Amino acid sequence: MDTKDILKKVRKIEIKTRRLSDHIFSGEYHTSFKGRGMTFSEVRQYQFGDDVRAIDWNVTARANEPYIKVFEEERELTMMLMVDVSGSENFGTHTAFKKDIVTEIAATMAFSATQNNDKIGLILFSDQIELYIPPRKGKSHVLRIIRELIEFQPKSRKTDVSQALKFLSGVLKKKAIVFLISDFMAADYEQTLKIAAKKHDITGVRVYDPREEQMPNIGIVNMADAETGETVLVNTGSKQVRLEYEKYYQEKVRYFKETFSRCGAGSVSSRVDESYVTKLLGYFKSR
Q1: Burial group, residue 222, by CB count within 10 angstroms (0-12, 13-18, 19+)
Q2: Rounded CA gap, 210 and 149, in Å?
Q3: Using CA atoms, how far apart are residues 180 and 193, in angstroms rounded to an integer?
Q4: With contact defined as beta carbons under 8 Å apart, do 60 and 66 qualify?
Q5: Cβ distance 89 to 212 under 8 Å?
Q6: Mean pLDDT to the nearest integer, 46-59
Q7: Is the dihedral of CA 18, 24, 29, 35 positive or negative?
Q8: How far, in Å, CA of 46 to CA of 68, rounded?
Q9: DSSP track, the chain
Q10: How far apart are CA 35 and CA 37, in angstroms?
């Protein structure tokens, strides 16, 4: 893809996702995440109607009357987009490749953050950190992020979500809003997610294709692993083979949902032929 084609594609995504963020997402994003970053301001005497969860028990014990902690909303937040660029993202059978939807979601989130004058950063990962763009503000910065999402060519085709989360914990010291976007066909990331979720507000966005849920019965075919390149002959006519595949896939989905829930992180799943707008809005409103 030459520079002219890349710029044309960047512009197309900007027009579509900016409209979404301007008219739909910015308000929901603000409501869902603004105010979740709070800094301590002072203590004052408890008044009728105050939230009892804000009581400062140490001061209350010393003064022998109830006092509450007062917090101020942090005006500037940081959004970090963590995007899986492994080989399995280049899969699609319906309206788009998973990579295309991942790019649109990331761009929409970035413009929503820009509307609120927040910083936006980007981590592209496979089984290693492929690219890190530190958080900054501004339209030109967001357009650079979109350009990287479109044209970046990863060195590896494999996936390691845990490695990406370790990098996040090491590079970002201040609390951030994190969107981890992947198909989550991975495992063994619970411990690193638990550590990262204690510091950051993390949401896992799972993007998947309907053909991944079940193996079609199309006889004996050669199938290639998108991440290893290994090709094997598979008898899709075997009911046992199809059931084993479905069991494997559902185990990955269950691990994703249960792990994010146990770690206190949010999660949302969107199929490539569904409206990710509807899914994300529903998630924001449920917060």
Answers
A1: exposed
A2: 23
A3: 11
A4: yes
A5: no
A6: 86
A7: positive
A8: 6
A9: --HHHHHHHHHHHHHHHHHHIIIIIHHHHHHHHTTSSEEEEEEEE--TT--GGGB-HHHHHHHTS-EEEEEEE-S--EEEEEEE-SGGGS--SSSS-HHHHHHHHHHHHHHHHHHTT-EEEEEEESSSEEEEEEEE-SHHHHHHHHHHHHH---S-----HHHHHHHHHHH--S--EEEEEE-------HHHHHHHHHHSEEEEEEEE-GGGTS-----EEEEE-TTT--EEEEETT-HHHHHHHHHHHHHHHHHHHHHHHHTT-EEEEEETTS-HHHHHHHHHHH-
A10: 5
Average pLDDT, the chain: 85
Residue for token pair 């002219």: 4
Strand partners, 179: 81, 203
What are the tens digits of pLDDT across the range 179-227? 999 999 899 999 999 999 999 999 999 999 888 888 777 878 787 666 6
Query: What are the structure tokens assigned to 284, written together?
Result: 């924001």
